[in-house]
Amino acid sequence: MFMAVESTLPTPVRTPASEKDAKALQFIEEMTKNVDSVQERVLREILGRNAETEYLKRFSLNGATDRETFKSRIPVVTYEDIQPEIQRIANGDKSPIFSVHPISEFLTSSGTSAGERKLMPTIHEELDRRQLLYSLLMPVMNLYVPGLDKGKGLYFLFVKAETKTPGGLLARPVLTSYYNSDHFKTRPYDPFNVYTSPNEAILCVDSFQSMYAQMLCGLIMRDEVRRVGAVFASGLLRAIHFLQNNWKQLAHDIATGTLNPKITDAPVRECMRKILKPNPELAQLVTIECYEENWECIIKRIWPRTKYLDVIVTGAMAQYIPTLEYYSGGLPMACTMYASSECYFGLNLNPMCKPSEVTYTIMPNMAYFEFLPHGSSTSCLVDLADVEVSKEYELILTTYAGLCRYRVGDILRVTGFHNAAPQFRFIRRKNVLLSIESDKTDEAELQNAIENASLLLKEFNTSVVEYTSYADTKQIPGHYVIYWELLVKDSAIAPADDVLNRCCLQMEESLNSVYRQSRVADNSIGPLEIRVVENGTFEELMDYAISRGASINQYKVPRCVSFTPIMELLNSRVVSKHFSPDLPHWTPERRR
Ligand code: AMP
């Protein structure tokens, strides 16, 4: 059971912590006061420099850089619409298709198309824009939490595998690109941004070794830690789970000053050699805290000076809030920024607010933003400065790297304004049914996975008559649960356990590459589970929905469930449970 814990939020001190902070805050004020003129300038710059690109010429923009011409000629597009051009760039076409600046690499989004990560073209200077947004985060945080320069941040940061496209361009996630850049690796010393994790540990591609070294450093520097974080809540919970599994070895390393022989990466070993010294007292403390069965408040117990958790708990990550509250003893959770592979969008100007109240202010200098009122046609786009409070919009983006009127797929609600800049609540990502961490499985992918798996049932004269799903995050790592109602036409040859286990694996093989990477490389999603329910269960589900007012004519089986009474009904009808017996196939190489 999770305790409901009231966060004790610090009140803002409201004076910039330094001259540098004052400048950053001044920049935010300027941007948010002049949203519309900044947006006009950004569009002018993008269209001016890219006037000679194949894409803008195709729509006869003829060098125009004003909004009206842009809006009347350039279509709103999805990834699939521009995929042929993306593929040409990936295959080595260096002509200016989207951007006159050379495409420096592809950023691989956790959003997928046909099962593979989407490839987002980027240009070198985008790193400066990303860094600029990062540089605004601490000046805002320092207004609310004083003294962060007196200690360090324990952040669990990871890189993922990189690949090359057929034309030789690197393809990797945006954070892998950022952590490998000089902007990050050779960042100047800033007392407000000192991490416990050495670059060598962050940049180690092996997720076990990277996590091990980062955790070890976090334990060694426990007294200095003032904030604990990861990009997403799921990443921080993975770190806690890792500590649960590895504390004995970690304590042994600390006690003896020797490094676990499983850590073989030479740069990590070399930097840990300098950090690791025998410290039996600390080893004992770690042992006492971790030995206990009860891990409530473990973050506060091990890192007692932590003032807040720095993790995103909005959107799909909201499901982790109760678990994080449990492990942290109710520490405030700061969601500091809203970003994607396509573009970094903006920041939370009130980072110590409750998770349910988080809003992000989009910075108008990052790209040109338009908003499609939810449910309207693409001819009704409004500008950033013109969105209306309490309305929901889909975010449309035009970037310096050459994406034009691109549908990101995020739905945002306007909650208010900071100066002239709207503030948005992240509502949801379109078409996402199941998500444990960065995986985003939609209804079509789930349907396809079910169809592939049910082929294995054919020879047993059995079919799947109904199904639904649930993202089970009660345990770490979380896993997909799929409820199946089966029609067994000949009980003499009903599918045995091992067949249904293989169905689990077959489903996993059919899911997108982000899911499979999380299973195989990151171990951040557990084996998929099929729960077979009694015949008639889905009819009961319908009866229940109708008793609550659903129309019989329009009733559709929900393909994902989370509502407690429905979960209870389904779970009370389970006749057997099956788990994937193996890991699905995954390599960094793309299938297409
Ligand atoms: P990716 O392209 O893999 O970097 O994923 C970017 C997507 O992650 C965004 O389009 C959002 O759907 C989601 N995301 C990023 N930041 C946040 C946030 N602060 N809160 C909720 N969702 C977020």
From TrEMBL:
The lineage, from the top, is: Eukaryota, Viridiplantae, Streptophyta, Embryophyta, Tracheophyta
What's this protein's name? Indole-3-acetic acid-amido synthetase GH3.1
**UniProt record similarity statement:** Belongs to the IAA-amido conjugating enzyme family.
Entry keyword set = Ligase
Which InterPro entries does the record associate with it? GH3, GH3_C, GH3_M
Which Pfam family, any one of them, does this sequence belong to?
GH3_C
GO MF entries: acid-amino acid ligase activity
- GH3 middle domain ranges (all copies): 360-429
User: Which Gene Ontology cellular component terms are annotated?
Assistant: cytoplasm
GH3 C-terminal domain location, by residue?
Answer: 445-563
Task: State the species of origin.
Answer: Gossypium darwinii
Q: Which PANTHER family match?
A: GH3 DOMAIN-CONTAINING PROTEIN, INDOLE-3-ACETIC ACID-AMIDO SYNTHETASE GH3.2-RELATED
